């Protein structure tokens, strides 16, 4: 399941920018608020969508 993969990417990536890049590479981005893996630290512009830019 992709959401489980996303959780592991975030947990072990070592940084928010690396986590967003890894999520994009895995096809798990963008992440919307309320979805597994969403964190406000990954939502750079505060629009409720993480790893979209």
What are the defining features of this structure?
53 residues; mainly alpha; two-stranded antiparallel ribbon; 2 helices; 40% helix
Structural class call reads mainly alpha
Distance between the termini: 23 Å
Q: Please provide the count of β strands.
A: 2
Rg, alpha carbons: 9 Å
What number of domains? 1
**Biggest pleated-sheet summary:** 2 strands, antiparallel
**Approximate strand percentage:** 5-15%
Mean pLDDT score: 80
With strands numbered from the N-terminus, the spatial order across the biggest sheet is: 1-2
Q: How many helix segments?
A: 2
Q: What order do the SSEs take from the amino end to the carboxyl end, as H and E? A: HHEE
- What best-fitting shape do the alpha-carbon axes yield? globular
């Amino acid at each position: 399941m992709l959401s489980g993969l996303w959780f592991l990417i975030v947990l072990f990536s070592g940084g928010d920018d690396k986590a967003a890049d890894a999520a994009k590479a895995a096809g798990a981005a963008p992440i919307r608020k309320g979805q597994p893996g969403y964190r406000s630290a990954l939502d750079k512009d505060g629009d409720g969508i993480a790893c979209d830019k």
